[in-house]
Amino acid sequence: MCQSAWGGSTDSRADMFLYLLGLVVLFYLYRWIRELPRVSDKGSKHVYITGCDSGFGNLLARHLDRKGFRVVAGCFTEKGEEDLRKSCSGNLMTVHLDVTSKDSIDEVAAAIKEKVGERGLWAVVNNAGVAIPSGPCDWHTLEDYRSMLDVNLNGVIGVTLSVLPLIKKARGRVVNVASVFGRISPTGGPYCVSKYGVEAFNDSLRLNMAPFGVKVLCIEPGFFKTNVTDGAVHTRNVTMLWERLPQEVKDDYGSKYLQKAIAEVKDKVPKMSDGDLMKVVSCMEHAISAVWPRKRYSPGWDAKFLWLPLSYMPSCVTDYIILRGGIPIAKQIQ
After folding, report:
1. Do residues 281 and 297 lie in contact, with contact meaning Cβ atoms separated by under 8 Å?
2. Is residue 96 within 8 Å of 152, Cβ to Cβ?
3. Is the pTM of this model over 0.85?
4. Band of residue 227 on the pLDDT scale cut at 50, 70, 90
5. Which of 13, 21, 76, 154 is 20 to 30 A from 36, alpha carbon to alpha carbon?
6. Residue tagged active-site, from 191, 196, 253, 257
Protein backbone atom coordinates (compact mmCIF):
# COMPACT_ATOMS: atom_id res chain seq x y z
CA MET A 1 0.00 0.00 0.00
CA CYS A 2 1.28 3.46 -0.86
CA GLN A 3 2.37 5.37 2.26
CA SER A 4 2.43 9.15 2.56
CA ALA A 5 5.33 11.08 4.05
CA TRP A 6 3.56 11.38 7.38
CA GLY A 7 2.83 7.67 7.65
CA GLY A 8 -0.82 7.48 6.50
CA SER A 9 -2.08 5.82 3.34
CA THR A 10 -3.40 7.72 0.33
CA ASP A 11 -6.74 5.94 0.77
CA SER A 12 -6.94 7.05 4.40
CA ARG A 13 -6.38 10.66 3.45
CA ALA A 14 -9.05 10.42 0.75
CA ASP A 15 -11.51 8.93 3.28
CA MET A 16 -10.72 11.71 5.74
CA PHE A 17 -11.29 14.34 3.06
CA LEU A 18 -14.65 12.80 2.11
CA TYR A 19 -15.62 12.61 5.77
CA LEU A 20 -14.84 16.30 6.32
CA LEU A 21 -16.61 17.24 3.09
CA GLY A 22 -19.67 15.34 4.25
CA LEU A 23 -19.67 17.19 7.57
CA VAL A 24 -19.49 20.55 5.77
CA VAL A 25 -22.38 19.58 3.47
CA LEU A 26 -24.47 18.41 6.43
CA PHE A 27 -23.76 21.66 8.31
CA TYR A 28 -24.89 23.86 5.42
CA LEU A 29 -27.93 21.66 4.79
CA TYR A 30 -28.90 21.91 8.46
CA ARG A 31 -28.41 25.68 8.44
CA TRP A 32 -30.46 26.07 5.26
CA ILE A 33 -33.38 24.07 6.70
CA ARG A 34 -33.17 25.86 10.04
CA GLU A 35 -33.29 29.29 8.39
CA LEU A 36 -36.38 28.59 6.25
CA PRO A 37 -39.20 29.28 8.77
CA ARG A 38 -40.52 32.85 8.84
CA VAL A 39 -42.32 34.74 11.58
CA SER A 40 -46.11 34.80 11.48
CA ASP A 41 -48.62 37.65 11.55
CA LYS A 42 -46.52 40.09 9.52
CA GLY A 43 -49.44 42.48 9.24
CA SER A 44 -49.14 43.37 12.93
CA LYS A 45 -45.36 43.80 12.92
CA HIS A 46 -43.90 47.30 12.47
CA VAL A 47 -40.44 47.78 10.98
CA TYR A 48 -38.63 51.13 11.24
CA ILE A 49 -36.04 51.75 8.50
CA THR A 50 -33.66 54.72 8.26
CA GLY A 51 -32.18 56.11 5.04
CA CYS A 52 -35.10 55.27 2.76
CA ASP A 53 -34.59 58.05 0.18
CA SER A 54 -32.60 55.74 -2.10
CA GLY A 55 -30.46 52.61 -2.25
CA PHE A 56 -30.89 49.67 0.10
CA GLY A 57 -33.30 51.44 2.44
CA ASN A 58 -35.65 52.45 -0.34
CA LEU A 59 -35.70 48.96 -1.84
CA LEU A 60 -36.17 47.34 1.57
CA ALA A 61 -39.13 49.59 2.42
CA ARG A 62 -40.86 48.64 -0.84
CA HIS A 63 -39.99 44.96 -0.43
CA LEU A 64 -41.27 44.67 3.14
CA ASP A 65 -44.42 46.60 2.24
CA ARG A 66 -45.14 43.99 -0.46
CA LYS A 67 -44.45 41.23 2.08
CA GLY A 68 -47.16 42.64 4.35
CA PHE A 69 -45.09 44.29 7.11
CA ARG A 70 -46.09 47.67 8.53
CA VAL A 71 -43.18 49.85 7.44
CA VAL A 72 -42.12 53.15 8.98
CA ALA A 73 -39.73 54.64 6.42
CA GLY A 74 -37.39 57.39 7.61
CA CYS A 75 -36.46 59.80 4.79
CA PHE A 76 -34.22 62.84 4.84
CA THR A 77 -35.99 64.59 1.93
CA GLU A 78 -39.60 65.37 1.07
CA LYS A 79 -39.06 63.85 -2.38
CA GLY A 80 -38.00 60.57 -0.78
CA GLU A 81 -41.18 60.49 1.28
CA GLU A 82 -43.39 61.40 -1.68
CA ASP A 83 -41.87 58.77 -4.00
CA LEU A 84 -42.33 56.02 -1.43
CA ARG A 85 -45.93 56.95 -0.69
CA LYS A 86 -46.74 56.85 -4.40
CA SER A 87 -45.19 53.42 -4.94
CA CYS A 88 -46.30 51.61 -1.77
CA SER A 89 -49.51 50.62 -0.04
CA GLY A 90 -51.36 52.69 2.50
CA ASN A 91 -49.82 50.57 5.26
CA LEU A 92 -46.45 52.26 4.77
CA MET A 93 -45.82 55.36 6.86
CA THR A 94 -43.13 57.88 5.93
CA VAL A 95 -41.45 60.21 8.42
CA HIS A 96 -38.90 62.97 8.07
CA LEU A 97 -35.71 61.84 9.80
CA ASP A 98 -32.34 63.48 10.31
CA VAL A 99 -30.22 60.95 12.21
CA THR A 100 -27.79 63.70 13.27
CA SER A 101 -30.55 65.57 15.13
CA LYS A 102 -31.67 64.38 18.57
CA ASP A 103 -34.92 66.31 18.23
CA SER A 104 -35.69 64.61 14.91
CA ILE A 105 -34.85 61.17 16.30
CA ASP A 106 -37.00 61.73 19.40
CA GLU A 107 -39.91 63.07 17.36
CA VAL A 108 -39.98 59.98 15.14
CA ALA A 109 -39.62 57.67 18.16
CA ALA A 110 -42.63 59.34 19.81
CA ALA A 111 -44.71 58.90 16.64
CA ILE A 112 -43.74 55.23 16.44
CA LYS A 113 -44.60 54.66 20.10
CA GLU A 114 -48.05 56.13 19.54
CA LYS A 115 -48.55 53.98 16.44
CA VAL A 116 -47.39 50.58 17.75
CA GLY A 117 -48.93 50.80 21.20
CA GLU A 118 -48.52 47.82 23.51
CA ARG A 119 -47.38 45.53 20.68
CA GLY A 120 -44.03 47.26 20.53
CA LEU A 121 -41.76 47.67 17.54
CA TRP A 122 -40.75 44.46 15.78
CA ALA A 123 -37.54 45.75 14.14
CA VAL A 124 -35.37 48.77 13.47
CA VAL A 125 -33.02 48.75 10.50
CA ASN A 126 -30.18 51.26 10.81
CA ASN A 127 -29.43 51.78 7.15
CA ALA A 128 -28.76 55.53 6.84
CA GLY A 129 -25.14 56.32 6.04
CA VAL A 130 -22.70 58.40 4.02
CA ALA A 131 -19.35 57.56 2.41
CA ILE A 132 -17.74 60.94 1.81
CA PRO A 133 -15.48 62.69 2.52
CA SER A 134 -13.09 59.81 1.93
CA GLY A 135 -9.35 59.85 1.23
CA PRO A 136 -5.98 59.30 2.93
CA CYS A 137 -6.01 60.06 6.65
CA ASP A 138 -3.79 63.15 6.42
CA TRP A 139 -6.13 64.70 3.84
CA HIS A 140 -8.84 65.05 6.49
CA THR A 141 -9.72 67.38 9.31
CA LEU A 142 -11.28 66.50 12.64
CA GLU A 143 -14.54 67.97 11.36
CA ASP A 144 -14.54 65.45 8.47
CA TYR A 145 -14.40 62.64 10.99
CA ARG A 146 -16.99 64.23 13.24
CA SER A 147 -19.51 64.83 10.43
CA MET A 148 -19.37 61.24 9.19
CA LEU A 149 -19.40 59.69 12.66
CA ASP A 150 -22.51 61.76 13.45
CA VAL A 151 -24.36 59.95 10.66
CA ASN A 152 -22.77 56.51 10.42
CA LEU A 153 -22.17 55.78 14.09
CA ASN A 154 -23.88 58.27 16.41
CA GLY A 155 -26.98 58.14 14.20
CA VAL A 156 -27.12 54.34 14.54
CA ILE A 157 -26.71 54.55 18.31
CA GLY A 158 -29.19 57.41 18.72
CA VAL A 159 -31.94 55.81 16.62
CA THR A 160 -31.49 52.44 18.33
CA LEU A 161 -31.64 53.81 21.86
CA SER A 162 -34.68 55.91 21.01
CA VAL A 163 -36.79 52.83 20.18
CA LEU A 164 -35.05 50.12 22.20
CA PRO A 165 -37.79 49.98 24.89
CA LEU A 166 -40.32 49.31 22.11
CA ILE A 167 -38.07 46.62 20.62
CA LYS A 168 -37.74 44.92 24.02
CA LYS A 169 -41.51 45.00 24.44
CA ALA A 170 -41.96 43.11 21.15
CA ARG A 171 -38.92 40.86 21.72
CA GLY A 172 -37.91 42.05 18.28
CA ARG A 173 -34.77 42.78 16.28
CA VAL A 174 -32.14 45.43 15.74
CA VAL A 175 -30.53 45.24 12.29
CA ASN A 176 -27.39 47.33 11.85
CA VAL A 177 -25.95 47.95 8.40
CA ALA A 178 -22.19 48.11 8.80
CA SER A 179 -19.80 47.21 5.99
CA VAL A 180 -17.11 44.72 5.18
CA PHE A 181 -14.89 47.77 5.78
CA GLY A 182 -15.89 47.42 9.42
CA ARG A 183 -13.62 44.36 9.38
CA ILE A 184 -10.66 45.69 7.38
CA SER A 185 -9.42 49.19 6.52
CA PRO A 186 -8.00 49.36 2.98
CA THR A 187 -8.77 53.09 2.76
CA GLY A 188 -8.09 56.05 5.02
CA GLY A 189 -10.46 58.64 6.39
CA PRO A 190 -13.54 58.34 8.61
CA TYR A 191 -15.59 55.72 6.74
CA CYS A 192 -13.84 52.61 8.08
CA VAL A 193 -13.62 54.20 11.52
CA SER A 194 -17.38 54.70 11.58
CA LYS A 195 -18.11 51.15 10.41
CA TYR A 196 -15.73 49.60 12.95
CA GLY A 197 -17.70 51.55 15.53
CA VAL A 198 -20.99 50.13 14.27
CA GLU A 199 -19.53 46.61 14.56
CA ALA A 200 -18.51 47.24 18.18
CA PHE A 201 -21.89 48.73 19.09
CA ASN A 202 -23.64 45.83 17.36
CA ASP A 203 -21.62 43.18 19.23
CA SER A 204 -22.05 44.75 22.66
CA LEU A 205 -25.77 45.37 22.09
CA ARG A 206 -26.26 41.77 20.93
CA LEU A 207 -24.87 40.46 24.21
CA ASN A 208 -26.73 43.01 26.36
CA MET A 209 -30.10 42.35 24.71
CA ALA A 210 -29.92 38.54 24.58
CA PRO A 211 -31.48 38.11 28.06
CA PHE A 212 -34.47 40.18 26.87
CA GLY A 213 -35.09 37.98 23.84
CA VAL A 214 -34.01 40.75 21.43
CA LYS A 215 -31.94 39.65 18.43
CA VAL A 216 -29.25 42.03 17.15
CA LEU A 217 -28.03 41.33 13.61
CA CYS A 218 -25.35 42.88 11.43
CA ILE A 219 -25.25 43.33 7.64
CA GLU A 220 -21.72 43.70 6.19
CA PRO A 221 -22.07 44.37 2.44
CA GLY A 222 -19.22 44.49 -0.03
CA PHE A 223 -19.24 46.90 -3.00
CA PHE A 224 -22.67 47.52 -4.56
CA LYS A 225 -23.81 50.13 -7.05
CA THR A 226 -25.38 52.78 -4.84
CA ASN A 227 -24.67 56.42 -4.03
CA VAL A 228 -21.96 55.17 -1.67
CA THR A 229 -19.94 53.83 -4.62
CA ASP A 230 -20.93 56.41 -7.25
CA GLY A 231 -17.78 57.18 -9.28
CA ALA A 232 -18.78 60.76 -10.07
CA VAL A 233 -19.46 61.51 -6.39
CA HIS A 234 -16.10 60.08 -5.34
CA THR A 235 -14.28 61.95 -8.12
CA ARG A 236 -15.70 65.25 -6.87
CA ASN A 237 -14.88 64.24 -3.31
CA VAL A 238 -11.21 63.40 -3.94
CA THR A 239 -10.79 66.56 -6.01
CA MET A 240 -12.27 68.70 -3.23
CA LEU A 241 -10.00 67.12 -0.63
CA TRP A 242 -6.92 67.60 -2.82
CA GLU A 243 -7.64 71.23 -3.60
CA ARG A 244 -7.84 72.23 0.06
CA LEU A 245 -4.56 70.51 1.03
CA PRO A 246 -1.53 72.58 1.99
CA GLN A 247 1.12 72.60 -0.72
CA GLU A 248 3.49 70.68 1.56
CA VAL A 249 1.12 67.70 1.67
CA LYS A 250 0.55 67.86 -2.09
CA ASP A 251 4.32 67.72 -2.59
CA ASP A 252 4.51 64.62 -0.39
CA TYR A 253 2.06 62.78 -2.63
CA GLY A 254 3.23 64.23 -5.93
CA SER A 255 1.58 66.31 -8.63
CA LYS A 256 0.29 63.23 -10.49
CA TYR A 257 -1.32 61.59 -7.48
CA LEU A 258 -4.73 63.23 -7.93
CA GLN A 259 -4.92 62.18 -11.58
CA LYS A 260 -4.05 58.59 -10.67
CA ALA A 261 -6.54 58.56 -7.79
CA ILE A 262 -9.37 59.75 -10.06
CA ALA A 263 -8.44 57.16 -12.69
CA GLU A 264 -8.52 54.42 -10.06
CA VAL A 265 -11.93 55.52 -8.79
CA LYS A 266 -13.34 55.51 -12.33
CA ASP A 267 -11.77 52.16 -13.21
CA LYS A 268 -11.81 49.95 -10.10
CA VAL A 269 -14.93 50.98 -8.20
CA PRO A 270 -17.42 50.24 -11.03
CA LYS A 271 -15.73 46.90 -11.75
CA MET A 272 -15.92 45.84 -8.10
CA SER A 273 -19.50 47.04 -7.52
CA ASP A 274 -22.35 44.53 -7.82
CA GLY A 275 -25.48 45.88 -9.48
CA ASP A 276 -27.84 43.41 -7.78
CA LEU A 277 -28.94 45.36 -4.70
CA MET A 278 -31.45 42.64 -3.81
CA LYS A 279 -28.57 40.52 -2.51
CA VAL A 280 -28.32 42.97 0.37
CA VAL A 281 -32.07 43.57 0.69
CA SER A 282 -32.68 39.81 0.88
CA CYS A 283 -30.24 39.57 3.78
CA MET A 284 -32.01 42.45 5.52
CA GLU A 285 -35.40 40.82 4.97
CA HIS A 286 -34.12 37.50 6.32
CA ALA A 287 -32.74 39.22 9.43
CA ILE A 288 -36.17 40.78 10.01
CA SER A 289 -38.46 37.88 9.15
CA ALA A 290 -36.60 34.60 9.80
CA VAL A 291 -37.44 32.74 12.99
CA TRP A 292 -33.72 31.95 13.33
CA PRO A 293 -31.76 34.75 11.63
CA ARG A 294 -27.98 34.77 11.31
CA LYS A 295 -25.96 37.03 13.56
CA ARG A 296 -23.98 38.31 10.55
CA TYR A 297 -24.63 38.58 6.82
CA SER A 298 -21.92 39.35 4.25
CA PRO A 299 -23.62 39.91 0.88
CA GLY A 300 -21.39 40.30 -2.17
CA TRP A 301 -18.79 38.01 -3.71
CA ASP A 302 -16.02 40.51 -2.96
CA ALA A 303 -16.98 40.46 0.71
CA LYS A 304 -16.99 36.67 0.91
CA PHE A 305 -13.90 35.89 -1.15
CA LEU A 306 -11.68 38.97 -0.82
CA TRP A 307 -12.26 41.33 2.08
CA LEU A 308 -13.34 38.89 4.79
CA PRO A 309 -10.52 36.40 4.09
CA LEU A 310 -8.06 39.32 4.10
CA SER A 311 -9.40 40.47 7.45
CA TYR A 312 -8.46 37.13 9.04
CA MET A 313 -4.88 37.19 7.75
CA PRO A 314 -1.88 38.50 9.75
CA SER A 315 -1.46 42.27 9.50
CA CYS A 316 1.87 41.89 7.70
CA VAL A 317 0.11 39.96 4.92
CA THR A 318 -2.84 42.34 4.55
CA ASP A 319 -0.52 45.36 4.67
CA TYR A 320 1.65 43.92 1.90
CA ILE A 321 -1.31 43.09 -0.35
CA ILE A 322 -3.06 46.44 0.13
CA LEU A 323 0.09 48.55 -0.17
CA ARG A 324 1.19 46.71 -3.30
CA GLY A 325 -2.08 47.66 -4.98
CA GLY A 326 -1.94 51.28 -3.82
CA ILE A 327 -1.01 54.42 -5.73
CA PRO A 328 2.74 55.24 -5.41
CA ILE A 329 3.55 58.55 -3.73
CA ALA A 330 6.31 60.96 -4.66
CA LYS A 331 8.21 60.85 -1.35
CA GLN A 332 8.00 57.11 -0.81
CA ILE A 333 10.73 55.73 1.49
CA GLN A 334 12.60 52.85 -0.08
Report:
1. no
2. no
3. yes
4. confident
5. 21
6. 191
